[in-house]
């Protein structure tokens, strides 16, 4: 039971982190910038909001966005952050499928050994950690690049969502891999052999439902 709870905790945290990365990628309130000096922007009450896909002007009487569609004229930090976040979002699909296939309630064909589930768990946990690294690099590099280009006023909710998503993916991936290490260190009785004394030959027989030792004479 504890094994399933830990696995569900890792999968739930990783899925929540994946949703956070998708939300951060799709929204454009990453940083709040200022085209003038900080004092002028505060007096005019006019700020700029920039994300991966658009740049907006925010004021009490105006909210206007322009799409960042000039691919080759965009700064390098915008293009690299786009690529990293898209890669992190796409990696979430195989990561979730691999981890779900390793759940105890999922029955694979008898031709597949138990090591297949352990390998799926290892690959899924590693993919979640890679997603966390990609998301963290993108969400840290973007505000640094925006600050060098313009005056950075504050962080937007999209950036916070990206940080939370990357942290949850990292936590979930570590839990999933730690669970695999615990299983290897303390193997279950799934692959245990039960023998019968029939004709002096040791034969493998089915395990009883309560996993207790049995001896057939």
Q: How does this structure look, described?
A:
By secondary structure, the chain is α+β, with helices and mostly antiparallel strands. The protein is built from five helices and seven strands. The protein has a five-stranded antiparallel sheet with strand order 4-3-2-1-5. Strands 6-7 form a two-stranded antiparallel ribbon. The chain is elongated, with a radius of gyration of 26 Å.
Secondary-structure map with pairings?
Layout: H1 2-26, E1 31-34, H2 38-44, E2 47-50, E3 54-59, E4 62-67, H3 76-101, H4 114-149, E5 151-155, H5 157-185, E6 195-198, E7 201-204
Antiparallel strand pairs: 1-2, 1-5, 2-3, 3-4, 6-7
Estimated share of beta-strand residues = 15-25%
Poorly predicted spans: 189-195, 199-209, 211-217
Average of pLDDT: 78
Based on Cα principal axes, name the global outline: elongated
- N- and C-termini, Cα separation: 33 Å
Q: How would you name the oligomeric state of the polypeptide chains in this document? A: single chain
Order of helices and strands: HEHEEEHHEHEE
Query: Taking Cα atoms only, what radius of gyration do you get, to the nearest Å?
Result: 26 Å
Helical region count? 5
Helix content: 55-70%
Given helix and strand content, the structural type is alpha+beta
Number of strands: 7
Task: Give the spatial strand order of the biggest sheet.
Answer: 4-3-2-1-5
The description of the largest β-sheet is: 5 strands, antiparallel
């Amino acid at each position: 039971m504890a094994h399933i709870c830990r696995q569900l905790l890792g999968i739930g945290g990783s899925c929540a982190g994946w949703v956070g990365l998708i939300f951060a990628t799709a929204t454009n309130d990453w940083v709040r910038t200022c085209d003038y000096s900080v004092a002028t922007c505060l007096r005019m009450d006019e700020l700029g909001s920039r994300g991966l896909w658009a740049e907006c002007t925010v004021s009490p009487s105006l909210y206007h966005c322009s799409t960042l569609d000039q691919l080759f004229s965009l700064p390098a930090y915008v293009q690299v952050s786009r690529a990293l976040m898209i890669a992190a979002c796409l990696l979430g699909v195989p990561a979730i499928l691999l981890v779900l296939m390793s759940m105890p309630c999922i029955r694979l064909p008898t031709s597949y050994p138990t090591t297949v589930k352990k390998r799926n768990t290892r690959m899924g946990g590693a993919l979640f950690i890679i997603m966390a690294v990609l998301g963290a690099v993108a969400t840290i590099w973007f505000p640094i690049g925006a600050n060098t280009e313009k005056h950075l006023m504050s962080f937007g909710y999209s950036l916070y969502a990206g940080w939370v998503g990357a942290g949850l993916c990292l936590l979930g991936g570590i839990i999933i891999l730690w669970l695999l290490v615990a299983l290897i260190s303390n193997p279950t009785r799934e692959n245990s052999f039960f023998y019968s004394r029939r004709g002096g030959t040791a034969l493998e027989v089915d395990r009883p439902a309560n996993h207790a030792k049995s001896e057939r004479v």
